[in-house]
Amino acid sequence: MISANQRTFITSLHLKKYRQKYRNFLVEGEKMVGELLKSISGESSSGFSMVALYGTKRWANENSGLLDPFYAFFNEVEDDDLKKVGTLTTPHGVLAVVALSEKTTQPTLKPGWLLYLDGLQDPGNLGTILRIADWFGVVGVFCSPDTTDAFGPKAIQAGMGACFRVNIQEDCSLEEVMNKYPQLPVLGAVMEGANVFSSELPSSGILVIGNEGKGIRANQMQRLTHRIAIPPGPGGGAESLNAAVATGILVATLTNKK
Amino acid sequence: MISANQRTFITSLHLKKYRQKYRNFLVEGEKMVGELLKSISGESSSGFSMVALYGTKRWANENSGLLDPFYAFFNEVEDDDLKKVGTLTTPHGVLAVVALSEKTTQPTLKPGWLLYLDGLQDPGNLGTILRIADWFGVVGVFCSPDTTDAFGPKAIQAGMGACFRVNIQEDCSLEEVMNKYPQLPVLGAVMEGANVFSSELPSSGILVIGNEGKGIRANQMQRLTHRIAIPPGPGGGAESLNAAVATGILVATLTNKK
Fold this sequence. Notes:
2 copies of one chain form a homodimer. By secondary structure, chain A is α/β, with parallel strands linked by helices. Helices cover 34% and strands 21% of the residues of chain A. In chain A, the strands form 2 sheets. The first copy, chain A, has a 6-stranded parallel sheet, with helices on both faces. The A-B interface holds A 110, 124, 128, 131-132, 134-139, 158, 160-162, 165, 197-198, 230, 232-242, 244-246, 248-249, 252-253, 255-256 and B 110, 124, 128, 131-132, 134-139, 158, 160-162, 165, 197-198, 230, 232-242, 244-246, 248-249, 252-253, 255-256.
């Protein structure tokens, strides 16, 4: 059973406004909640803490090992209850309400590559970019205030749990990131940039990723120290690449230079 | 006005079954129809032909140049009519019914890179992969019989018009492709494959892309002449990359070697 109050609270978290107000967000489905529980068990260093866990009897039985440290948060419910409060059309056995700790806003970062997302709109792209960051060991992902929410339901699904492992800081300006890491060069992909495959490029830096349709904003453009590009192949006819694919190619190439 | 018969026919094309039966498919929205009209005007060498075009007065006025050669196919309708027959929740002024000519099944391909999609399930990934193929000038994309339809509405939207420019052949086996191009090596990404960034690799070939969850099928695996991998970065924690992102990184790296 989920009470009417709980239901109101959980469904409010479908919206960014309430996620920001309460600093809580939802994680849905066996796969994503599994990633979450793994990332916040052990040392609670991940910056997240459990608020409530709603799962079916079947889910609890099949995941008793994972559930054990979180039993105090657990409420047994039916799939029908999950359907009423979740965003998935077919509920997958479990839903968690998670709090973002204040700590996540001040990660201490090792040297390496950082991403700055400049007005990225599509939550699927954002989740996919976090998955890229997670794969290649990008040390931090910073989001402009108008970038879609990394903790929205679609971004979390697309990210396959990457948001629990990657250092994410939302609502920050490129200037702040540059002030925090003044030694780092700032790279961005622009049409007439240098060929990323053949150019001499730095071994660490801030890579700026622009909006899907408009690219990097004009006022950020002037902050770039290196303008790079993914040149089209001979006979290529596309106008552009998908933003997450372009990010994948750039991060893969930059982290595997030489 | 769209008649009841036309409406039944157009909505039937939401389903792969009827797209295959009639060899017709839908293209929706200003952007995608614009790409379509550009690709099939001029020489009708693209393998597609117009069946019917339904657009609002506003769309027709704003696109009179593009519309001109297709005026015989044009029916003026209201946005509300489009909503009843299309798949977009917000209709974007125009919808086209297009026929696939038989010609598209036998393209003559230049030497270069081919993709074989082995059980790819997500239409968004398929469209994004066609966009990658289009950008890097991949000479042909072949799809296994159980790969999602390249001419389904979601794949077309994600592909941003790439399906009108890339040579696509659906419903074929890897064996057929290998028989047709016996001189080409066959590459596939597998966990324990050779580092794609640092290995000596061929300059053309067939790149096999596996299913999102399961990867390349066991019986295809034995046909690979080169097993490659995108190694995770130091500190990377993701289980895998998105299928389209991995394809983008592999195609970009293979087409930009040396």
